[in-house]
Structures are given as C-alpha cells and as structure tokens.
C-alpha cells in the first residue's frame, strides 16, 4: 500500500460558479495567479495556463512591492494597483493591508484627486454600469445586465464631488451624472446614470 498522500484542494470550485480554465484567471474575485496549488490546477483545468510554480501570497506581495518601487509617481502606483484589483482582488487587498498608512494615500486621498481629474487619460476598464439619459424608460433592462444577482447595497451619487464615490470609480466630469453603486457577495461596482441638473441622490 502506498504511503503517498493526495494533496487536498483548498479551493472550492463551486465558489467560481462552475468556472474553469481561463475563465477562473479572468475573474479577479477567485483568481490566485501563481497561488493555485497543484490539486487546484488539476481540478480547475489550470495546468499550463499559469507558471509551473506555487507561490505563497507573501511571495506574490514581495513582487508587487518590487514593481511599485520602479513607478515614478503615486499616480503610476495608483494605476498599477487598480490593474491588480482588476486581476487579483485577494492580492490587491493583501497589499493594501500590508501597509495601510502607505497605500491608502495612493488608492485614496490625495492621489485619488489627481486620478479623478485624469480619469479619461488613465481609464483601463469599466467598473460598474453606465446609464445614459438615452436609456430613459429602459433602466430595468439595463440593470439586468449586472452579473451579480445577490445585491446587498446601492449608493447613488452625481459624481460631482472629486472625492465622492462616483468620482473615485467613474471620474469627475463637468457634466453631472448619477452613479449607482451596487454591491453583492464577492463583487462590487456601480451604475452611472446621466441626471442633468440633479444633486446627490
């Protein structure tokens, strides 16, 4: 009888809603990049899709910190961290909590102010949903496109304040727009709706 023990996966495939392979790596809420164990790679069809090494989150964090050192400005670091959030949420939050005093100044005040003003220049990918005034009468249909059904909270703002919730995620604009932030289990985002002339809702 063999004494070899089989590695037990610590990743529950059900948390990925049945996702496998590249779809797992494209979902920032479940992607662990080089952190997947051999058993997890086998179970989720990731063999060959990530480097042939299993790294601890601390090793991943060390690489993030090293890359951040080479960024010239805090805005560059902000862009890098937002990209990390878009690809690996666990590593993003682990990075922030490794030194909150340092990183909050990058992902929030004062750097977020410059990021809002330059939103149209640094935009990488959308966060949340956008409702134009041209969609009047079709809000329900548009909201059905939001992928998370278990929505726990919403927050509406016209994005008029540079450090408001809308400004952080959707940029500051002279044209007023309402932002509806929706949060659900394992995901958060927002909806931006054009509401000319309205204040915060």
Record the SSE blueprint:
Elements: H1 22-25, H2 38-44, H3 57-69, H4 74-87, H5 89-98, H6 100-107, H7 111-117, H8 119-122, E1 129-131, H9 139-143, E2 151-157, H10 165-170, E3 178-184, E4 187-193
Parallel strand pairs: 1-4
Antiparallel strand pairs: 2-3, 3-4
Helix pairs in contact: 4-5, 4-7, 5-6
Main features:
3 domains, 10 helices, Hemocyanin, N-terminal domain, 201 residues, disordered C terminus, alpha+beta
Structural notes for this entry:
- The longest helix has 14 residues, at 74-87.
- It contains 10 helices and 4 strands, in the order ααααααααβαβαββ.
- It folds into 3 domains: 10-55, Hemocyanin, N-terminal domain (Up-down Bundle), CATH 1.20.1370; 57-121, Hemocyanin, N-terminal domain; 126-193, no CATH class.
- Helix 4 (74-87) crosses helix 5 (89-98).
- It is flat, with a radius of gyration of 20 Å.
- It is α+β, with helices and mostly antiparallel strands and 201 residues long.
- The chain has a 4-stranded mixed beta sheet with strand order 1-4-3-2.
- Helices cover 39% and strands 12% of the residues.
- The protein has helices at 22-25, 38-44, 57-69, 74-87, 89-98, 100-107, 111-117, 119-122, 139-143, 165-170; strands at residues 129-131, 151-157, 178-184, 187-193.
């Amino acid at each position: 009888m063999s004494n070899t023990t089989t590695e037990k996966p610590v990743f529950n495939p059900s948390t990925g809603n049945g996702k496998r392979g590249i779809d797992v790596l494209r979902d920032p809420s479940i992607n662990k990049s080089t952190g997947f164990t051999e058993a997890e790679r086998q179970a989720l069809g990731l063999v060959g899709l990530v480097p042939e090494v299993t790294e601890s989150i601390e090793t991943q964090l060390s690489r993030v910190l090293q890359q951040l050192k080479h960024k010239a400005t805090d805005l560059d670091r902000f862009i890098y961290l937002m990209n990390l959030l878009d690809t690996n949420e666990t590593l993003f939050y682990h990075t922030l909590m490794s030194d909150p005093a340092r990183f909050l100044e990058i992902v929030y005040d004062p750097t977020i102010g410059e990021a809002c003003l330059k939103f149209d220049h640094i935009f990488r990918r959308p966060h949340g949903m956008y409702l134009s005034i041209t969609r009047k009468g079709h809000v329900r249909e548009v909201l059905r496109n939001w992928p998370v059904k278990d929505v726990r909270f919403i927050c509406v703002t016209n994005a008029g304040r540079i450090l408001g919730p809308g400004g952080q995620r959707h940029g500051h604009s002279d044209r007023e727009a309402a932002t509806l932030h929706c949060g659900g289990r394992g995901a958060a985002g927002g909806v931006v709706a054009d509401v000319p002339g309205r204040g915060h809702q």
